Structures are given as structure tokens and as C-alpha cells.
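User: My advisor asked me to double-check a structure prediction for ATP-dependent 6-phosphofructokinase before group meeting. I don't want to rely on an old file, so could you generate it fresh from this sequence?
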Amino acid sequence: MGGVCPNVYDSIGGKARVHAAGRHGVTVRISIQKAVTRYLIWPKNPTYTRTLTSSLFLPPHNTHAMPIVEGLSHFTLTAPNPDAYTNALVFYSALGFQTVAAPSGDTKEVWLTLFGKQPIQDLTVKLWINPSMRIKDPLPEDSEWRLEQSNVAAVSGDLATVESILVSLSRPFQKHTPAPSSNPLSVPLTASQTPTELYALDPLNNLLTFTNVGHPLSREVVDRTTKPVAAPSSIPSGHSARRKKIGVLTSGGDSPGMNASVRAIVRVGIARGCDVYGIYEGYRGLVEGKEKIKKLKWDDVRGFIHIGGTVIGTARCMEFKERPGRLQAAENLIKNGIDALIVCGGDGSLTGADLFRSEWSGLLAELVSLGRCSAEEIEPYRALTIVGLVGSIDNDMSSTDITIGAVTSLHRICESVDSISSTAMSHQRAFVIEVMGRHCGWLALMAGISCGADLVFIPERPPVEEDWETSMCDLLQSHRLLGKRKTIVIVAEGAIDQHLKPIKPDYIKDVLSSRLGLDTRVTTLGHVQRGGAPAAFDRYLSTIQGVEAVEAVFRSTPELPSPMIGMCQNQVTWQPLVKAVEMTHAVAKAIKEKDFKRAMELRDPEFAEEYVAFLQSTIVDDESIKVLPHQRLRIGIIHLGAPAGGMNTATRVAVRYAINRGHTPLAIYNGFPGLIRGAVEPLGWLSVDGWTTRGGSELGTNRSQPDMDMGMVTYQLQKHNIQGLFLIGGFEAYTAMLSLEAARGAYPALNIPLVHLPATISNNVPGTDFSLGSDTSLNAIVEACDTIVQSASASRRRVFVIEVQGGKTGYLAVMAGLATGATTVYIPEIGITLAMLQHDVEHLVELYTHDDPNRSEGRIILRTETVSDTYTTDVISSIIKEEGRKLFDSRTAVLGHTQQGGTPSPLDRIRATRQAVKCVQFIEQHAFPTLEKASAMGQEPPVALCSTPESVAVIGIRGSEIVFTPVRKLLDETDMKNRKSTKSWWLSMKGLVDLLSKKVDHDECSTEYCPALERVDRIIGKLDPPKRY
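Assistant: Sure, here is a fresh prediction for ATP-dependent 6-phosphofructokinase from the sequence you gave:
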């Protein structure tokens, strides 16, 4: 296991041993002159370094520095000849190492991983042949091996089994246990409780240590004693004898994003040494077999990422519901050597997959008894691995916040409703629009929020009134009396009343026509909701879940329940598939039993919150939520920085919610210059009608800061009696908050609640994972890139270098690169060097050299506008064109301010709605105590309402939760020089962009791509750690 001990250890006369530690990282033991021992820890968390050492090893001033080495990657074993290679492979396989990348052709190189049980870290070994090397001389058996340099210390809770394996393989070893305690009162330890070390030589004469102590600084013994197993006499199946073969199928209703997940599964599977088979037409293809099960290569999924539906097809299959059909499916998997199945579909598809797994052993026995398979054929396939991905436009699966296809479907609905709204406005009509959702009202509710609908009907929350028709008419009539010219009602197909009687669009139409005399039309959107190219979020979601699905194949064991890959709190999760399906069915059961409260609780945590936010921003003069007269506030709303999608949506919701609470919302036009001029006026309920769908900033915005004239700012705040200030904007709003707080001591008028809702396409404001406008901009970039890729592909051999905005933050470039299949991205966090450009050009040359000239692909590279003053977009394009050897040419595209405009995306509208309500509540929370005190004393409210640091805060989304963070506290995670947050959860996706674009072919693997293979685990390991079980 060469390369373990750096020269610095030798320079101080020491010997080192690497311990595969767990939560804390990689621990290195250093011994000097066989007497002094120190332990160094390479942390897994790169934000700090923990050291247990004296100044001899690490100067004190470096104790908390960013580590250069971030963790354990792998060890290398070099065999001089095929016999030694085979012996080493048998040895490490017997110890439980699994092949994760097998050799192909004449290549003798294999990657083995020992998957550690938490908290022990995984251990990966590269084994290859180098004829110029020779096997080391064995250690003398009469020497004490524990004093020699050991390459690695591995943890085992069952050293007796390890010892039996070493004996069966005839490998020499020495055993060391501490001397028994001399204390007569001490309790004798059993063999499994005694700290023990085995020192053994592998077939290459590397010295290995096996210990039952979980961490070298602990004396706690790991005890997982099991029955001894015999060591194999030859290379075990599933290692170099055969590769891991994964089948992927899509089933049930198609959903946008399925193709992106198939692309990720195929390419990551290939990169990890697997063969991946596409099973066409879903379960029908699994039953029919033959040409319906095809091995997929890297280029077979080219272009998948921007295609809607499912290219590999889906179909109903009644045969699979019967045992004979599943028997045939099992036979087809075995004949093709497939022992892992990734299924992307809804709850019915995933239920069928888990049933298939539960019957697997019985199906195999039946195949043997019928003579359709021999015992030898089925032996390598005793266990079937099932991994589920949820593809459902309804977002109706429990145990995950969002499903593949739901956001794109919402895009289609909003596009349709936005278009209908213009004709409704023109003719003063009412439209009743039916959307999908038999047992789930997510699409209807989110469409209602995103489109500013007047009313929604969903199955989880039927109207509470017996005579709901009258209540509906009263609400809609109140909107008309205010001057509203259109009425939009959105109905989920499964909408019901309190008695489970269906609420149908045609019935609503008849009620509105007869009672209110409205010209009412019904529109059923139907299957248009399933169509079209996937939205940016669905491409991201399906890609990272596809990557994790391949990881789940490697990690799953027969004892673990089949995992469903989901998304909770903006983090990939594993949930037991059966449990998730049961909870999903529990929603339908709760509705059937009229337990609507339980049905709402079973939805994701945002659902109920957003339902309440919708009602509170839709109902006019809702007396039930009005505050007392002395609690009513005058709240100023101001926009700062560049325009961003969602600014107007947030303003609309804040205004309407504030009015319903009894407050007076005040518009401050054109930022702080407008405030200084006194451009302040009240906003009414109808004055913000239609703002949900408007891009840009209706109030006007600029980058001016309040310290341009702080005196006049505070004068106008006091003059207009503004008792709470709501800032909507980007980094400029954040710095304005800092300035306002700093001036509080000098100006009493600034001692009011101040809250900032981040809104910037760059997504660079600290305190939040997502800023308003970032999703809108991302979709604009993705749409433009899809068009450019189409142009580049039509030209066959063309590379476009596309410049995107983002300031000093690479969020847009990375996430758009992942969503469009970009060849690479250049971002400020990493920069550009000549070596990087040279490597990328060579990669492009390699790709175009091996492309089919009749099917050559257009390719794109994304560049953040500020990544380099030297390597501009034009310079990069010129270098690519010059170095392309006439295999391809290059063009540039600068997307410019198109990234800031356009209609806000549904996600930005939803985020704006939820957060705007919370911001008004934040202002109330910090102003009410002083108002209550003044009222109790019979006094007028003072100018200064609050002065605590907590009353000046930024609202943000962390995972799926809404949090408020004081601006002072956020300074710890702010890079003021580069105007961005230091916490970039998305940065690890940069490696995934490269991994999915840099072609790897194990059948014809050139030296060029071998480094890419070696980086696969490291790239995936840098992604946010999923919540697995």
C-alpha cells in the first residue's frame, strides 16, 4: 500500500501507520525511535483541523488552519506479475473488499472498497500490475512485527474470523494482546472484550494491522462476533469474474426528469465500473425481455437531459402483476446477468418492485425446478437489489419533499393559467381550471399560489362550510366589488367536500353563472401537464438522485430494506421504500375516513404553511386574523439592488397579508433615493393585483445605500411614521441592513424591526440556501442553453462558450451546467488556469475525434462573467478554436440581462409567498411588546420600538425550514470583499458536472480517461452527505 507515509515522517526518524477512522477523519500514528507515539487527525470536515500533537509535529499557529489534506482517498497495491495480482485479489476479497471498478480487456487494474460500518470510514484499494516492481522481502518471523512500519490498520469486530481467514490462506501473522491486569479486584475480560491486534503479511508482503479497537485513541472494543467463513479458493464471482450489472426502468405515468435520472444512472454506473442496461417499456420490457433489455453506453444517453417524458418508455403491464409474469422477469434478469434494478416511477411501480424482491428467492427456486435455469446459473444472483426513484408529477409520495417531474408540471400549469388570465381580464370572465391530483392537492395549491388564483379546491382540505357554494360566491363577489376584472378558480381532480362528494369544475361553473351572473368557462389542462422539457430544478433533482441510486446499489445488502431515494431539507435521503408507500396510502385512507387534519399532517412540512399563506393573502378583510387597534403598524416596503424574479410576488403577499392583519403597508419607490425624496404612499389590496406574475420591480430598485444621506432616511421614516421596514433585494439590501443597524445609536427612528428578504439571481446573500430570482434566472439560462445546444448540434462540430452572470459567485454557472449537460464550467471559486484550458481542449479533441461524424454533438462551456480578467469569454473561445485542429470551431454567447427579466418561475413565486408572510410576522413579533407596554400605560407608541440585534435579521431557507438570522451573526459567514456568502452548498456540484460530461468507456478505456475513473469516488464523496440508513 505504497505512498502512505510522506517523507516528512522519515525526516524525523519516524514510522507511520494510517488508521481508517470514522467521524473524525483519517488518523495517522507516528512513532519516533519506537518510543514516542503521536496521532494526527485529517478531518473529514474541511472547515477545521483537529490535532493531537506537540509543536514538534505542527506549529501552534496552524492548529485551526484549513487542511491541505481533507481525508483518505485510497491506497495502491502493486503486483509484479499476474500470479501475485490474483493472490492479492483473492486475499483482499476474502477480507470483505468488494470490487467497485473491474478490469476490462487486457487491463489488469481493479478497485476494491471495504464499506465500513458507521462510524468507520470506507477503505478503497487500487490493485494493478507493474512488471518493473518486485515483491518485498517478508519480515523475519522471529522479529516483533508490531514495532515495524504497518501500512494500514483495519478495524474488525470479529478478529477470530480474520484469524481463520489468514490461516486458511496460509498467510503468516502475529497476535498481540495486553498483559492481564495485576489488580485482583479487576473483572477478567473475555476474548471478544480484550483489545487485540493481529499483524499479518498480505501476498505482496505488505504489513497489515487488524484491530478490534474502533478508534486508536479509545480503548472501546468493537464486538461483532460472527461464525467463521471459509476463504475462497479462487477469485469470487462479482469481482473480476463479472461486473456489477444494473438494470434501469421507468414505469407508471411519465414525468419530466425521468430521462435525466436515466442519464445520470448510466454515466455514473459506467464510471464506477458497472454495465447498465436500459429496460424499455417499463415492466412490460422486463417481462418480454430480448431486445427490450439493452446494454447502454455513454453516448446512448446523449441529449437525454433536456427531453421530457421517458425515452426508454413506460407501459402498463398486467402480466407483471401475476406471479408467472414476475417469474419470466426474473429469468430475463438472470439471463442478462442483472442483479440490481433501479425503478423510477410512482407508488404502484415501487410497490411492484419491492414485491418482486420479496419473492426473489422463491422465483429462483421455481426457475431451477422447472429447468429454465440451472443451479449454477442462479448462484451469483441469490440477492436482488432494488432502488426506487419517485417519478410523479402529483408530488404525492410521502417521505420526500418533492418528486421528479412535479416542478416541471407546475411550470406547465402556470404557463397555461398565466395565458388564460389575460383573456379572463379582457372579458371579465371567470375560469375554472382543473389540474391533476387524485389524492394530492399539491399541484392545485401551488398553482393557486403561483398564479394568484382566487380560490383552490384540494382533497386534503375540503371546504369547512356545509354550504360552501355560498361562501365561495361571497368571497369571489368581494373581489369583484373591489374592482377585480377576472376570477380564477383552480380545482384538483380529486377535490371533495366534507362528505366526500366530488367537487367538479362544471358544477362550480354552474354555481358562478347562476348566482353571480359571471361568464364562466371551464378548462381541463389534462396531459399538457406532463409534457415539455424538464425545468431546471427537475434536472438537478433527478440527476443527483440518479447518482445516489447507483451508490445505493453498492451499499445495499440483503438485510437492508429496499431504499427509496428522496429529498428532504434540500438533502438527498434514503427511506425504506415500503414504509414510504404505506405512508402515501395513509393519506388516501385518512381522506376516506374524513380525517382531513391527519391528511394534511402526512404531507411535507411546507404544505400546510403554504395553504395558510394562500388563504391569508387571498381573502379580503379577514376579521378572524386582524390584530387589536393598538397593535396596528405602518410597514414600509422597499426594493434594493438588481431586479430579480419574485420581488413583486413578495410585495403583493406582504401587502395583502398586512392589510388583513389591520396594518398599513407603504410603498417606498425607487429605493433609498426615493425614500429621501419622500416617495412613499400606501398600497391597497387591488393595487398589487396581478403582481404575482410580473418580473422586475414594480416599486423600482437601485443599488444606492442609506448612508448616502442617513439623516434624511431617518427623517422620512419618522415623518411617515414607518414602524417596520421590509427590504427585498440582493447583497445591497444586506449591506444596507448593516448600515442601518450601525446607525441605530444616533437615530431613534431606526430602532424598529428591520427584515431583509434576499432577492438576487446570484444567490450570494448569506443566511439562505436560495434567494428569490435565482430559480427564475436558472430557468432562463437553461432555456437559452437548450436553444444554443440545438444550434451547435445542427452545425455538428461547434463549441459555444456561454457567459452567465453571478458576480463573484458561480451558483448560476454550476447549477446551469448540471442542468444542461455542459462540458465544463468556469467559476470564480476555482478560477481558470492555462493548464485547465489545455486539459479541457484536449478533452474536446478526444471527444470529437471519436464522435460519429454523422451524429456529432454540439457542446457548451459555461463561464461566470467575473471568473478572470485575462481569460475572457472571447479569449477562451479563440483558444478552443485555434487548438481544435479543425475538428470543431467555437462561438460565444453572452446572455446578459435576459437572466434578470421574464416571468418569475413557480418556485420563486412560492418561496416569495411563504417568506413574505413570515417577514410581516417577524415585524409584529419585535414591535408588539413595546406597543403593548405603551397601550397598558395609556401612552402613544414611541418612535423606537426595539433595539436588540435580533430585530435586524435576514430571512432565509435552510433546507426546507424558514429561519431568521441577525445580520451581525451573518458577518461570520460573509466574504465582504467578494460580496457573497462563504457557505456554498452547491459548490460540490462542480465535480459532478465534469464527471457526467467527461466520457468514460470501460470497453475501450484509453489512458486519457483513467484519471477520471480514479476521481469518481472522490467527486461523489464531496457531495452533501445523504441521509442514509
